[in-house]
Design a protein that fits this description.
- The protein contains 7 helices and no strands.
- With about 200 residues, the protein is mainly α.
- Helix 2 packs antiparallel against helix 4 (about 65-95).
Length: about 200
């Protein structure tokens, strides 16, 4: 966002250019990633359960196939819910960002194109995760409710494809923080000529 508009907030913004100490979006991102990856991973383990059953028995791990699919389902529902907050916080924080200018990422992009692609990618992933949740719900409660294997192969393939999109999206996010200094307190302090080794005023109780 334009610095003159951001400056209207005055003392409300801390060293990381946000009205709170720790950025929310990166934390929610990792929660979304973890929930979705666990969801699809447990569904994959559930699909191959007949092959793995002997291994679980040998390790004395009490596992049921339906239990694995339960973990997959509930983690996916949680991921769908959390992702709304992840995307919302991302757009809010990017509006308050003050990226380094005249810097290019490893992909050869300036700050603005990187932010645009990251924002579009976040919205795309939101729709995909919600779509996967609806798809998974139909499989669980209608199409395959009486089958031992609760998910379709195409569903698992789509989940793995989304893993790849998450990797690209995460790399763009890493570029925003690591190369453009967006909401990285130490980088922002150095930018204004302060010593990042000293505790910023905004971090004091």
């Amino acid at each position: 966002m334009r610095s003159d508009l951001v400056n209207q907030l005055g003392d409300q913004l801390g060293s990381n250019n946000l009205p709170y100490v720790v950025p929310i979006h990166p934390n929610l991102v990792h929660l979304t990633l973890g929930l979705f990856i666990v969801a699809v991973s447990f569904d994959i383990v559930g699909v191959f359960f007949p092959v793995e059953k002997a291994v679980f028995k040998y390790l004395a791990i009490p596992v049921t196939r339906s239990g694995l699919f339960d973990v997959g389902w509930y983690n996916l529902v949680a991921a769908a819910v959390i992702t709304f907050f992840t995307v919302a916080s991302g757009f809010y924080e990017i509006l308050l960002s003050n990226p380094f200018q005249n810097v290019k990422s490893q992909w050869g992009l300036l700050a603005m194109p990187t932010m645009v692609w990251h924002g579009l990618g976040g919205v795309l992933l939101l729709f995909l995760i919600v779509g996967m949740t609806v798809w998974r719900g139909f499989q669980r409660f209608a199409w395959r409710k009486d089958m031992a294997r609760q998910v379709q192969w195409t569903y698992l393939g789509a989940g793995l494809a989304i893993f790849a999109l998450m990797f690209l999206q995460g790399t763009l996010g890493a570029h925003l923080g690591g190369e453009f200094g967006i909401h990285v307190t130490a980088d922002q302090l150095i930018k204004v000529g302060e010593d990042p080794n000293l505790l910023p005023r905004s971090l004091l109780p």
